[in-house]
Amino acid sequence: MSRGKFITLEGGEGVGKTTNLAFIKNYLEQHDIAVVVTREPGGTALAEKIRQLLLDNKSEAISEQAELLMMFAARAQHIKHVIEPALTHGKWVLCDRFTDATYAYQGGGRNMKISTIKWLENLVQGPLRPDLTLLLDAPVEIGIARVRERGAFDRFESEKISFFENVRRAYLLQAELYPERIKLIKANQPLPDVQSAITDVLRTLLGLCSLNCPTSTRHGTVK
Ligand code: Z5A
User: Fold this and answer.
1) Can you tell me the distance from the alpha carbon of 190 to that of 49, in angstroms, rounded to the nearest whole number?
2) What lines the ligand 1 site, CB under 6 Å?
3) Chain centroid to CA 212: how far?
4) What pTM did the predictor assign?
């Protein structure tokens, strides 16, 4: 049995990760691929408890180091109990955020050392990296306006605009560093256009792409 593929969705607040997760799952299942949908922080009972602690904006102030370590503690559980077993059994894993979020939020947002994040990434993940990352990118104000409509903010959503600008910059830097893995999708366009751009990338991954595919799909940014 061949190993499944590991796909992650990334981006700032309200760019449409959760919305497009269902679309991608559906698309892959239509191509007879068994998909496990999961998220970070979270994905196991223990990791979901860590998520609650991390998002709770009424808890005691969480230090930057504690926040970073809690992200990776949750990730270690998630990899061991969900991600690796699924990939080994040939299933594809579709994950709402993964370690690029740590580079963006703890690295870009909290200004923690990239070398420390990289060290933890190697410790916790070994060689595991996503096969494909869809980075949904939109100007910060657009994502925040979408999220504001939902009401109450969690601990991250309560941050200042400058925090989210730094997060966005760090995500874009990741995309520049890993152009083969990270495909940038413009998320400030109507949903059908976002999903058409995502479909182009998935077609390439599935080997369904021939000369008909947009050249942009083969080289990085999509639309
Ligand atoms: N975090 C971290 O710091 N470090 C890490 O390593 C990890 C995570 C893994 C987890 O929350 C928090 O943890 C996160 C980073 C931190 N911080 N925050 N905040 P999350 O992943 O649950 O958080 P989120 O980014 O806030 O999710 P979200 O707000 O649900 O955003 P989304 O999933 O990208 O968006 P959505 O729910 O799909 O869409 C939002 C709304 O926009 C919704 O009403 C949609 O119908 C609408 N939408 C979506 N697309 C469109 C388009 N194209 N046009 C118009 N409207 C649209």
Assistant:
1) 35
2) 11, 13-19, 40-41, 71, 96-97, 101-102, 105-106, 146-147, 154, 156-157, 187, 190-191, 194
3) 28
4) 0.94
Q: Which atom of ligand 1 sits closest to the CA of residue 189?
A: 53
Per-residue pLDDT of the chain (223 residues; tens, 9 = 90+): 899 999 999 999 999 999 999 999 999 999 999 999 999 999 999 999 999 999 998 889 999 999 999 999 999 999 999 999 999 999 999 999 999 999 999 999 999 999 999 999 999 999 999 999 999 999 999 998 888 777 778 888 888 899 999 999 999 999 999 999 999 999 999 999 999 999 999 999 999 875 555 544 444 455 5
Other beta carbons less than 10 A from residue 141's beta carbon:
12
Q: How far is the CA of 16 from the centre of ligand 1 (A)?
A: 6
Tell me whether residue 213 is in a domain: no
Residue with tokens 């919305």: 19
Instruction: Give the domain range for residue 151.
Output: 6-205
The count of structural domains within the chain is 1
Whether 25 maps to a domain, the answer reads yes
CATH code of the domain in which 36 resides: 3.40.50.300
Q: Is residue 64 part of a domain?
A: yes
Does some domain include residue 137?
yes
